[in-house]
Design a protein that fits this description.
The chain is α+β, with helices and mostly antiparallel strands. The chain has 29 helices and 14 strands.
Length: 694
């Protein structure tokens, strides 16, 4: 390797051609960067005391032995953005001088500048151009030099930046701009074939990770070490079609490779380490025999990824289910779905089985969301799920894998799902529209789009509830309103929200566009109600919750079949516990626990909940608070020494050595929501003590 300081124009002088490899990303400088370079060049060109301006390095391979008559080809490894931008600026200056023959430079004509720095004089083919770009960049740039009209299929960046520079030039600054270009200094780095490792040098030059994306680095790594002919074949056949399939979402390419690696290795790399992880993967025992195999595999699974994540699936039945995945934002499932899609493509499963598996994913995640189970474990759950599939009983093994998950990874049962769905604040739920739309459209051929309707509170939201509504609800109308206003039983869809407004229930039913004439399924249960009170809301919520259990179906396998899939060492007698196993968690105690659970899980992403036989554990590294549900209170055990808790109200009890269920020496009771803020202060202390001890 030879590295010297040089003037950029000296590098361009003489018979030569700088060629951009086909795998390099296209020209991408924005107007903002061009403006900065133009300002810098004008400043140094206008200041005699400024002798130079450094703009970076140009790294290229030394030309091989070639006939004297040919143009030496220099393969550019790094610096194409700078080379292209300065060449565009020179071209704009040349055309400005050509169009304004009354303006001249001190000692050079536009013809001399062009023939010295932009073209190899007397050459007729592509070797005429001292800089040879790729694809649309090449055609647009060469047409600008040859002054050929640019058609509709052009490089936006090349044309826009050329026009920008052309528009910036005028008689008062053209001399200073040319002087400034002459002062541009680079590090001229010449590599020798078979001696220098271009990839190591390339990585060093891009070590900040700011210049190229993780996908760019992977592309260059795969192709850079291949012979030129092979580079072209691999790029044209696999990489370029893969990039094109992402379209305007090209930034998602690195995320696809991350999910691809997760699928292959059941381990999730950080997005900024995808390049390093991919390199290690290629050289591991799980890698490929050849670069051709590696890039072919990426290309294969990228087709599945754009169908899943970018909604490009052509089969309408599969597309419908995949749209649910994106609506619910279940991108954590992509590694699993990629692998299953590959098996579907290879005909290991049929279309119906594939659709059932996609449904299992959305049903699992949606039920968990309704039940308020935290999502921080989903990436690991889906990252390892594929390993549990048995090829000979494919679908059944997936169903079993979901059913055998316990604790915070569990698949909520029908009982847990319906209980939480009926009391949840659905109105402020992220997937509210998806919920109502799916309930409406089950087995419906003429599909309803919730976006075309308004969410209607049957019992109005108005803080100043009318006397008629108060009478409708009964004596405890305030409590009913506070508890059930935003729940499923009180919400529906309508196109007549403004007409219905805060009218009495009987009017909402009978006016034009009211519930009595609504064609929607969601309004059938409203139409048959004579009065709208707590009982009516709960009855409708129960009806809709039963329908929800069918829409978001829970898998069912006999215990005998389920036992087959239990991992070795897992006792058949081992019981999986959930919220239904605690007899006192119902009514007000259930609401109190759910509020506590939400607050504790929000302490940190590492916090999870596990349901034990006699208590409920919240843990990070290990348990920091355990809850024993009792008839009139929740008994909490804080896992720390009693003298470490700061308890200004003196409500904590030292239970060291008393043999309570739960872990820790500190016991405190929670009886109602008004105490929750102070109880959370105590719990947070126990959590922080655990974190500090790690």
């Amino acid at each position: 390797m030879e590295a010297t300081q040089a003037q950029l124009l000296n590098l361009l002088d003489g018979k030569k051609q700088f060629t951009i490899p086909i795998y390099q990303r296209t020209y991408s400088w924005q107007i903002k960067q061009c403006q900065q370079l133009f300002n810098d060049i004008y400043r140094v060109g206008n200041d005699a005391s400024e002798l130079s301006h450094f703009i970076g390095s140009i790294v290229y391979f030394k030309p091989g032995n070639s006939p004297i008559t040919s143009v030496p080809e220099l393969l550019v490894i790094d610096g194409q953005q700078r080379l292209t931008t300065v060449s565009l600026m020179l071209l704009a200056l040349i055309h400005f001088l050509k169009e304004n023959d009354n303006i001249t430079l001190e000692d050079e004509t536009w013809e001399e500048i062009q023939e010295t720095y932009l073209v190899n004089k007397h050459r007729k083919d592509d070797s005429k151009f001292k800089l040879l770009l790729t694809r649309k960049d090449k055609a647009t740039y060469t047409n600008l030099i040859d002054e050929i009209e640019i058609d509709g299929n052009y490089s936006k960046r090349v044309l826009e930046n050329y026009k920008f520079f052309k528009g910036k030039l005028h008689s008062d600054n053209v001399q200073a701009i040319y002087h400034g270009i002459k002062k541009l200094i680079i590090v001229d780095v010449i590599l020798e074939r078979d001696k220098d490792n271009p990839q190591l040098i390339f990585e060093s030059l891009n070590s900040t990770g700011l210049d190229l994306s993780q996908a760019d680095l992977i592309r260059n790594y795969i192709l850079m070490g291949q012979p030129l002919e092979q580079q072209t074949v691999l790029y044209e056949r696999y990489w370029y079609p893969m990039e094109q399939s992402f379209g305007e979402n090209i930034g998602a390419l690195a995320w696809f490779i991350r999910d691809y690696l997760t699928m292959k290795e059941a381990s999730i790399p950080k997005i900024n380490l995808v390049y390093e992880t991919y390199k290690n993967f290629l050289h591991s025992k799980n890698g490929f025999k050849s670069v051709n195999e590696a890039i072919k595999s990426l290309h294969k699974y990228s087709k599945f990824y754009v169908r899943i994540a970018l909604l490009k699936e052509q089969d309408p039945d599969i597309a419908k289910k995949l749209k649910e995945i994106t609506k619910l934002k279940i991108d954590t499932s992509y590694p699993f779905l990629l692998a299953v899609y590959g098996d579907y493509e290879d005909e290991l499963i049929n279309k119906d089985e594939f659709i059932q598996i996609i449904s299992l994913v959305s049903n699992y995640v949606f039920r968990r969301a309704i039940c308020g189970i935290p999502t921080n474990s989903l990436n690991k759950t889906f990252g390892t799920l594929y390993k549990r599939i048995k090829r000979e009983t494919y679908l059944e093994s997936v169903q079993a894998a979901f059913l055998l998950m316990d604790g915070y990874r569990r698949f909520p049962t029908d009982a847990e799902f319906t209980k939480d769905l009926q009391v949840k604040d659905v109105y402020n739920f992220r997937s509210r529209n998806y919920l109502l739309e799916s309930l409406e459209n089950w087995k419906r051929k003429e599909l309803v789009n919730a976006e075309n309707y308004t969410i209607e509170h049957i019992l109005p939201q108005n803080q100043n509830l009318s006397l008629q509504w108060q009478q409708e609800l009964g004596e405890d109308w305030e409590k009913v309103k506070n508890q059930y206003l935003h729940t499923l039983g009180n919400l529906t869809l309508t196109g007549y929200n403004s007409e219905l407004s805060d009218r009495p229930f009987s009017n909402k039913k009978t006016i034009e566009g009211g519930f009595n004439t609504s064609p929607l399924f969601l309004n059938e249960s409203v139409r048959i109600a004579d009065i709208w009170n707590k009982q009516a809301i709960l009855k409708r919520a129960s009806t809709l919750a039963q329908r929800a259990c069918i829409v978001w179906k829970e898998p069912h396998l006999s215990q005998e079949r389920l036992d087959i899939y239990k991992e070795p060492g897992l006792s058949k007698e081992q019981t999986v516990y959930n919220i239904e196993n605690y007899e006192h968690l119902q009514g007000d105690m259930l609401v109190l626990f759910q509020n506590l659970e939400k607050r504790v899980l929000n302490l940190d992403a590492s916090v999870r909940v596990e349901f034990k036989k006699l208590y409920i554990a919240f843990k990070s590294q290990t348990n920091f608070v355990d809850v024993v549900p009792q008839k009139k209170r929740l008994r909490l055990s804080l896992n720390t020494e009693f003298d470490r808790i700061k308890d200004s109200k003196g409500i904590c009890k030292d239970v060291s050595g008393l043999g309570r269920w739960g872990n820790g020496d500190v016991e405190v009771g929670l009886e109602n929501l008004s105490e929750l803020d102070y109880i959370m202060e105590l719990i947070e202390q126990a959590f922080e003590i655990q974190v500090e001890s790690v």
